[in-house]
Amino acid sequence: MLALTTLVTPAHANVADLFGLGAAASGRAGAVAATTTDWSASHYDPAGLAFGRGYHVALGVQATASRLSINDVDRPVTEPLGVTAGASLPAPLYGPLEGKVSIGLALYLLPTRVLRVIARLPSQPFFPYYDNRTQRLVALPAVAVRVHPKVGIGLAFNFLAGVAGGVRTDSGSTRALEPRVDEEVFATVKLNGGVRFDPRPGWSTALVFRQAFSVPFKADTQNKVAGDRIDLAIDAEGLVTPHTLVAGLGWTSGGGKGQVQAGLDLSWAMWSRLGSPFVKVTSRIPFVGPLEGKLPAVEYKDAFGVRAGVDVTALDGRDFGLVVRGGLGVETSPVPAQRGVTNLVDGTKVAMALGTGLRLGRVGKHAITVDAHVGLHLVTHVSYDKRVFAPGETGAPTDGLRDELPDMASDPSTLGTQVSNPGYPTLEGGGGILAGSLTLGVEL
Hints:
This protein has about 450 residues and is mainly β.
């Protein structure tokens, strides 16, 4: 199902960028770029697949509960439930490539739909960092090569579909309007690339680049009513995520009971390279000619983040093992101060996670693992005081608001500042999201 409403598509990423992919990685707040080797590496660092061993399959569930609010109005996260699935295995190759190539697949599936894009009005208050974030299928097939005992390279394909086409409406033989719809769904693919280098036993490093991703939505309508032509074109990109660069460092001590594995990830999300988040609408109306809506631009800032996480093996028996884990992450906001017509709300994000992993021995020849995690994602409270332009003052719509009614002594209701913008006089918001996941894995 694809839903598009009103006139703005905010910038977002997918659920893995925010809440993680798989309970084991999420329990460390996602700080696993330099250490992960299973199916979740398709997102965190595809090169990590080259360091994995054996065959792994996994199936799980992720859920969120939101307590975000703007001006004391709840702003829930839509599609709070999803299913995760993945697999990783060595490629069945022989000769020089035997044992050097691995493949993986990571999936996040919505229970009832493939994709949902909600577009919002320019003045509507919302959290652009979270809005739509959990509303798309994530499909990440990946391949990795061990080019050296200490070096692996990997590539994942961030795949989804876009929609483009047109609608033509003419007066039929009965003078009723007869529409013809011609829409097509086309593939859109972006790349996640990574390099992993293990300089010495126990230490690992990673460098990951995730290409900017979006879902294009285009529609051209050509309508002929009573001999007059009325055209409308919509050009939008939904579910946009910026170029992101991640550098990771990992450390593993010993093995068996008491083993510690720690990771540190630094991220740079290049939001400033994105254009306006609003839908471009152009039209042609009789006696008026071509029209193009002038919507406000948003000057996003780059966002920087740091995540740290640790695994500790508490028990390591023949038929039972227990791992406890935790993590912490902080990321700056890409949203500038909202002084004018737009009402985007965002603050510094703080993520805290706890998790556990059980190894339940073997069923036949297969080892069973169960991982669970719970995380709290806090958005620090922000407050923006709206600015009202003085009479005759010029400025961009994002820099201030204007008094909408001139003062008339005969009408007391017009006296003072009259502004209908829902964020006036002060826009404030914040809150938190509780996330949890459970993943069942099988080592074949």
